[in-house]
Automatic annotation (TrEMBL):
This is LicD/FKTN/FKRP nucleotidyltransferase domain-containing protein. InterPro entries: LicD/FKTN/FKRP_NTP_transf. Residues 4-38 form the LicD/FKTN/FKRP nucleotidyltransferase domain. GO terms for biological process: glycoprotein metabolic process.
């Protein structure tokens, strides 16, 4: 299921966030061994071989070795762009022992301590439109840890695997959502099923388009 930045992008833009250069997904920890068995398999009719790299908190899945098409960047053990695959599982949370929580679990089975969500917020999963696909994701309440009324640039570059050279406060990364919309970035309307975006017509003026995504 799409997760974290992937879910946020689906809810706000119907696809990746404009600045994002990876996709976050999550699978239940009970499927970990099956997932790891599939790493390195050839998919898409034999045309694509997936590469997998185990990081400390997630697996990175990427297009395997091939000709340099100038759209992939090599790092130590993996290529960018990639999909971050997180594991989640219902586990005890000591701060609230009487409440059921879904927690992020590292590939080694330990919890990260970073993210925990009420089970009733996480499940049941919902349908999201994401770049022409219908994907499952956690309940929308999970994304409310973000301020959905504000737009921010990214503070980290996955292609280069580097933060900005100087420490930048998050407030300094805020950008005008309306300005993004006016130059053509799509936004999802409140119904969660309609993409609205602006396109410059032949006369040079911007026209608005609303498209139902069919969820």
């Amino acid at each position: 299921m799409i997760y974290a930045g992937g879910q946020l992008g689906a809810m706000l833009h119907g696809g990746p966030m404009p600045w994002d250069d990876d996709i976050d997904v999550a699978i239940e920890y009970r499927h970990r061994e099956k997932f790891e068995e599939l790493c390195g398999e050839t998919v898409a009719g034999g045309e694509v071989r997936l590469g997998c790299f185990r990081a400390w908190n997630a697996w990175k899945v990427f297009k395997g070795k091939g000709e340099d098409d100038r759209t992939h960047w090599k790092h130590d053990g993996y290529n960018s762009p990639y999909i971050d695959v997180y594991f989640v599982e219902e586990r005890f949370y000591w701060r609230h022992p009487s409440t059921r929580y879904i927690r992020e679990v590292r590939p080694d089975g330990e919890t990260t301590g970073e993210q925990q969500f009420r089970v009733d917020d996480f499940y049941p999963v919902e349908d999201y439109y994401y770049g022409g696909m219908k994907l499952k994701g956690p309940g929308r309440a999970v994304a409310l840890r973000y301020d959905l009324s504000r737009c921010f640039a990214g503070g980290y570059n996955h292609r280069l695997e580097a933060f900005f050279a100087d420490a930048v406060d998050k407030e300094e990364l805020e950008i005008d959502c309306c300005a993004m919309y006016e130059v053509g970035y799509p936004f999802v309307k409140e119904d969660g099923k309609t993409l609205t975006y602006m396109i410059r017509n032949k006369l040079g003026t911007m026209e608005r388009y609303d498209v139902r995504v069919g969820l």
